[in-house]
């Protein structure tokens, strides 16, 4: 299998059947070792329950007893076409940071909606977060069709509600599929319960999606991760986030604006003259510049923004609210710097999407804020839609990551003193 | 980029990140296939000169082949080795016959606790993978443990876009998992691609081989005729037995792995 595995996150409201669906996917693709199935069967018996696929991922004892997913879990399955990594993200509001952790690692999402319950609070919140994280490939499954007598009318009703909401946040799902994760209908096999449905099964739908790859033909961005002294060489190491780097290439360092020429590409026990997107490599320079972690190596003429103020949307993951007067640390690629929130233009409820307050001075758990961030010194960033790797960041308070953010505006906010 | 190249690149990024973020770090080498792969990746990350010590927790019950392999490559690769042993428990005569849970806990977990304390390590690189065991599916790349090695899986730090937990509270140490995204087959395909030396225990002899290795007392071989890397890869693609089925600590009681882990087991 030469192809990369596709990473899928499964999101949706609590009890809409995420873990059951995952168990079903593993079972129907023969991805479960027989001793594991036996183990799960035995434990369900001990608890006096029917065999539940959800137990496979809800692996921790506590989750098994309470029947809820606490943390995000990952596992693997494969179809004839390719391999998949499945990320199960918890549906409870309290576990939002775990859901975001899961979703931030995915290339596409399955949004699961209960055919009886319909669109609920976390359905909306999760969909909104997917959109913020830039996940464009979304498959909607309407689950528990067995509880509504496999009724086509009910499927269309729920589909209509989901579609209307997703449309309002500009998410365009690739598929809507009626399923019963418990029975397996329309997951790996069609089954004979919903003959009115002529579309793809979930597995067929997933097989049509694409791996998200950073193209190599973009301008170079190579954040410096560290500097090693090996023998008499000073090697700058890091991972190429975009583009290619070549021996002899003229480069610019940002934010310092120093310039030099690539003297060599360093890969252990290999002789290289170039490297491309995604590779962790080292380089040496023609000039003896003093370069530290956090500098972004760029191609001359294609330089991302260097600013100390920018607009962003941030989602607040800490139970302790954001206080506009506090000092935080921003981390973007390998850059790390002290910052403050200059303005909170609005506070948004991440489920109803209603604006709670304009020109606010705080932000509470699960809320999204449109903010202006002021960094202590210039930092190298870009709009998320243009350069993903320099358009997303986290905010750290004390020793904890407490928010994630997406850069929305850089250009017209550069302050005069730069 | 090809699948294995991408895995390698991400793992090297994580290893370099851990080294940058923590002053006092070590790598845990069990001499098994996974941690030997991490060791290989560390050699690549630091151009053959690993700048931190390599820690081997020795229960005294490891296979003789493992000790030979460890000493041979420690020398060849110029590793700074630390051997951690719970001498007190060994003197007391703790052994698997008197109870496997206690034995694992004393000779592995407590030996590791003592060693971390003695050297004041702030972070440890470990070769665990998500597909090994259900409970490991929930691990983070950078995962904090408190002074009693407790893993607070209910309140794990968020991990977004390669921004990892880099600061620990005084009493914590961080476990770093560069192989978290790899599968068992990925490991073997990479070992083949890179020609990484690996102990002979994994290759079939007389119809049996070890799929997972630890102590002689608690590991049983699986039925297998796979005596080359290609045959192992082929076998794994068709087997329906899980990797750790030969490891008794996973099976003895329903929740023993979870208990061991909450006590700090690797």
Shape, principal axes of CA atoms of chain B: globular
Strands side by side in the biggest sheet of chain A: 2-3-1-4-5-6
The top-level CATH class of the largest domain in chain B is: Alpha Beta
H/E order of the elements of chain B? HEHEHEHHEEEHEEHH
Which oligomerization state do the chains in this entry correspond to? Answer: heterodimer
Mean pLDDT across all amino acids of chain A:
86
How many DSSP helices of chain B? 8
Uncertain spans of chain B: none
The fold-level CATH name of the largest domain in chain B is Rossmann fold
CATH superfamily of the largest domain in chain A: P-loop containing nucleotide triphosphate hydrolases
Question: Rg of chain B to the nearest angstrom?
Answer: 18 Å
Number of domains of chain A: 3
Distance between the termini of chain B: 32 Å
Specify the CATH architecture of the largest domain in chain A: 3-Layer(aba) Sandwich
**Text of the CATH class of the largest domain in chain A:** Alpha Beta
The biggest sheet of chain A amounts to: 6 strands, mixed
CATH superfamily of the largest domain in chain B: HUPs
Structural write-up:
The complex is a heterodimer of chains A (418) and B (266). Chain A has three domains: 202 residues, P-loop containing nucleotide triphosphate hydrolases (Rossmann fold, 3-Layer(aba) Sandwich), CATH 3.40.50.300; 79 residues, Elongation Factor Tu (Ef-tu), domain 3 (Beta Barrel), CATH 2.40.30.10; 109 residues, Translation factors (Elongation Factor Tu (Ef-tu), domain 3, Beta Barrel), CATH 2.40.30. In chain A, 18% of the residues lie in helices and 38% in strands. Chain A contains seven helices and 24 strands. The N and C termini of chain A lie far apart (51 Å). In chain A, β19 and β20 form a beta hairpin. Chain A has a six-stranded mixed sheet, sandwiched between helices. With 418 residues, chain A is α+β, with helices and mostly antiparallel strands. Chain B is α/β, with parallel strands linked by helices and 266 residues long. Chain B folds into two domains: 180 residues, 3-Layer(aba) Sandwich (Rossmann fold), CATH 3.40.50; 67 residues, no CATH class. Chain B is 37% helix and 10% strand. Chain B has eight helices and eight strands. In chain B, the strands form two sheets. Chain B has a six-stranded mixed sheet. In chain B, strands 7-8 form a two-stranded antiparallel sheet. In chain B, α2 links the parallel β1 and β2. The two termini of chain B are 32 Å apart. The model of chain B has no long low-confidence stretch (mean pLDDT 85). At the A-B interface, α2, β2, α4, β7 and β8 of A face α1 and α2 of B.
């Amino acid at each position: 299998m030469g192809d990369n595995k596709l990473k899928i996150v499964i999101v949706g409201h609590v009890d809409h059947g995420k873990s059951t669906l995952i168990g079903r996917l593993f079972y129907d693709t023969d991805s479960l070792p027989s001793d594991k199935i036996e183990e799960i069967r035995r434990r369900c018996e001990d608890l006096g329950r029917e065999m539940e696929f959800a137990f496979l991922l809800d692996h921790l004892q506590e989750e098994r007893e309470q029947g809820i997913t606490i943390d995000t879990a990952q596992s693997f399955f494969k179809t004839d076409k390719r391999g998949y990594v499945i990320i199960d993200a918890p549906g409870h509001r309290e576990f939002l940071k775990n859901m975001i952790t899961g979703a931030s690692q995915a290339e596409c999402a399955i949004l699961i909606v209960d055919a009886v319950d319909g669109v609920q609070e976390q359905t909306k919140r999760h969909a909104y977060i997917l959109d913020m994280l830039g996940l464009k490939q979304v498959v909607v499954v309407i689950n528990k069709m067995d509880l509504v007598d496999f009724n086509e009318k009910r499927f269309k009703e729920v589909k209509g509600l989901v579609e209307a909401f997703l449309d309002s946040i500009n998410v365009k799902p690739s598929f809507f599929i009626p399923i019963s994760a418990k029975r397996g209908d329309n997951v790996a096999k069609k089954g004979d319960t919903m003959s009115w449905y002529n579309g793809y099964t979930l597995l067929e739908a997933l097989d049509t999606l694409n791996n998200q790859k950073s193209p190599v033909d973009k301008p170079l961005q190579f954040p410096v991760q560290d500097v090693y002294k090996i023998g008499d060489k000073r090697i700058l190491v890091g991972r190429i986030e975009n583009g290619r780097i070549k021996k002899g290439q003229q480069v610019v360092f940002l934010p310092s604006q120093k310039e030099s020429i690539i003297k060599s590409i360093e890969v252990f026990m290999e002789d290289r003259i170039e490297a491309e997107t995604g590779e962790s490599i080292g380089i040496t320079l023609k000039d003896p510049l003093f370069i530290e972690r956090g500098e972004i190596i760029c191609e001359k003429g294609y330089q991302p923004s260097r600013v100390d103020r920018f607009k962003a949307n941030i989602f607040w993951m800490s139970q302790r609210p954001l206080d506009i007067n506090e000092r935080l640390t921003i981390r973007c690629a390998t850059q790390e710097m002290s910052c403050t929130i200059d303005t909170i233009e609005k506070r948004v409820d991440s489920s109803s999407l209603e604006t709670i307050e304009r020109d606010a001075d705080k932000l509470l758990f699960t809320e999204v804020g449109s903010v202006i961030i002021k960094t202590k010194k210039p930092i190298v960033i870009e709009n998320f839609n243009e350069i993903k790797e320099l358009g997303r960041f986290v905010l750290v308070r004390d020793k904890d990551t407490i928010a994630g953010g997406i850069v929305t505006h850089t250009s017209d906010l550069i302050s005069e003193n730069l | 980029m090809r699948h294995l190249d991408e895995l390698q690149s991400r793992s090297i990024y994580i290893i370099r990140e851990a080294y940058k973020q923590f002053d006092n770090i070590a790598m845990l080498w069990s001499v098994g296939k996974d941690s030997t792969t991490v060791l290989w990746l560390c050699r690549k990350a630091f151009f053959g000169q690993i700048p931190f010590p390599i820690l081997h927790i020795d229960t005294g019950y490891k296979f003789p082949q493992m000790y030979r392999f460890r000493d041979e490559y420690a020398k060849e690769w110029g590793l700074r080795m630390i051997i951690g042993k719970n001498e007190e428990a060994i003197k007391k005569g703790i052994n698997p016959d008197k109870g496997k849970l206690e034995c694992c806990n004393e000779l592995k977990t407590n030996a590791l606790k003592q060693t971390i304390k003695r050297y004041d390590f702030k972070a440890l690189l470990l070769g665990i993978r998500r597909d090994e065991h259900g409970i490991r599916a929930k691990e983070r790349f950078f995962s904090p443990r408190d002074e009693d090695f407790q893993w607070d899986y209910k309140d794990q730090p968020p991990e977004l876009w390669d921004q990892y937990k880099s600061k620990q509270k005084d009493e914590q140490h961080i476990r770093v998992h560069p192989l978290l995204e790899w599968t068992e087959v990925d490991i073997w395909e990479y070992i083949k691609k890179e020609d990484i030396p690996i102990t002979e225990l994994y290759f079939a002899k007389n119809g049996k081989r070890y799929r997972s290795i630890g102590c002689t007392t608690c590991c049983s071989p699986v039925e297998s005729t796979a005596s080359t890397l290609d045959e192992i890869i082929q076998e794994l693609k068709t087997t329906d037995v899980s990797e750790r089925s030969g490891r008794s600590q996973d099976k003895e009681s329903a929740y023993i792995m979870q208990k061991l882990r909450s006590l700090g087991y690797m």
